[in-house]
């Protein structure tokens, strides 16, 4: 854990340059706009450790699988969102010496991520090896208004004495992914062009043939006058313009660089260059200040919609805003072809691919903070991959339209290549079905089932019905050889969570068949026909539902994570020596597998999803048993525990888990922020506040709250969209106040009491009543 980020309600602030923290900061200070993302690398050269990372949404490469021992059914490749052309680069030489923070003395270094207005700022003073001092001030952002564009303003001031500056804004397409399996290059040059004050390169990905045209317009100003470059360079993968400037001491030289990244996913290849030129012309016309102003207004609107305000705890306030900010930078929901990689655009780990994280953790955030179309697009993404999921299941020996969604995917095909996860971590199918349920429950849009949802549910239900085996010993269905959400157990039999989600999926599919049949008989027939559905399938589903085996310990009154879990030596996490943690770095895999330690919520994940089925004592017993055995070595773990702890009234624990999820990256809790931010768990942070502290749930189409105020906070407030209404919820020590910012009355429940809130009014619920 590191605590070098200064606390501030709206800004992420780093002061002083510490090279060993630089890669962590490159992740934390990342900027993005849903179409592209950029790590907080330096514009100027840097010979120290860095991951120069620039990513363009939807542009990936199928990197040939690398495994020790090939198993039938493994995918051929792992799709990776590619590190693309460097659009931020500005080489600076001072009196002939390269400005490089690894080789000069750095003072007054300050890096700020301004979350309110959506830009990154950096300033420092450097003393170069030959003694010249300079001051640098740089600002940049990825525009959320013109989402193919980014802009940089870079200011250089010689200090103490005049200096000869050589300034080279450039684009470099010769980029590799650091995580390439075979150290291959993924890009080929296609075109390059330098004209006037603009330059362009087009690169094409090998195999997938995506093209990306990156363009820039540059302006260098001295004393308000635009300078002309002395030379330009136009090479296959590198375009640049070099300016020689003699600057007196104290004179600020200003470099503006407007850039754009356009991909062939969004433009015909033969028009990419022309379209890129049009974007560059548009943003150059708006100018840096115009674009920055536009950016600030667009961010103000976003914050208006989904800020969470925490009074009395600046560390918590900064953290929640950071999580919301990064989620908004990653996914906007405008494009159903895109999804949310666990690291977003902030690093290469996980390849930018889609995991169950989206359905299990991100959907609730987007449901409550954005138009329903946003969460819907995330569901439609999986609908579009249904055929591939059916093919994936067929590869593993399933038939008749059974669908197994991939553990990791870009285009619907499985990319993961460890048998214990690829073939066994099949619970992801459950999360995908649950997301459909969650969407319909939240929005009331049952028509989604007719249009897309039911087909997916049928495919998933068929998979479960085939994946179970009949145990003639138990006279029940069992599920053999699986990995639950807790990846510190592999190839177990009867993971309670997987068995439970499997039968839940079967029940929901049966229910949804009836819903669609009632609502739209014609569409129902169409769907039966399209899926070759046979009525006897439902009989078999029902048989599985009625006869599933769920491991449990009667004596302890808990569900068992899997068969035989109690055979393990039961030493609690608190009794482990600190030197053993994190287990995944300190212990052999064999030792982890034989231990009782749990990576992330497993039984508790099921109790979180399906809480209405279980009484509070059952939830408590399971929580009290499993949490002390959980090491939370997945970023996805603390949020679920925060929510369940809050439900159980354990305010202290709920708050501790909140802090852990909220500041996970800011404080580099798991020592891995340098690989990129934990974007999907950031949605879990939001859930910890809204579903945890505010206790928000949807039951029978209505919103319920069961709030408490963490002891350290004076108040907290957030906005929720719900079925056409916008509600502002404010919770302090005295009361819960809900303002209805919409045109119709809405009834919500606070601790079970109905409050009818007329349009434009506020209703309060005294906290005294809660305690009484
Ligand atoms: C977790 C998975 C998760 C993946 C990507 C793993 O460490 O165990 O549940 O899907 O990370 O976030």
TrEMBL record:
Q: Which residues form a coiled coil?
A: none
Choose any GO biological process term that the UniProt entry carries and state it: carbohydrate metabolic process
Pfam families in alphabetical order: Glyco_hydro_65C, Glyco_hydro_65m, Glyco_hydro_65N
User: Active-site positions, per UniProt?
Assistant: 487
Domain Glycoside hydrolase family 65 C-terminal positions: 696-754
Where, in this chain's numbering, is substrate bound? 356-357, 599-600
Indicate the segments forming the Glycoside hydrolase family 65 N-terminal domain, all copies: 13-264
TM stretches of this protein: none
Q: Where is the Glycoside hydrolase family 65 central catalytic domain?
A: 321-687
Q: Which GO terms describe its molecular function?
A: carbohydrate binding; glycosyltransferase activity; hydrolase activity, hydrolyzing O-glycosyl compounds
Its domain of life reads: Bacteria
Q: Tell me which family the UniProt entry assigns to this protein.
A: Belongs to the glycosyl hydrolase 65 family.
Name listed for the protein in its UniProt record: Maltose phosphorylase
Organism lineage reads as: Bacteria, Pseudomonadati, Bacteroidota, Chitinophagia, Chitinophagales
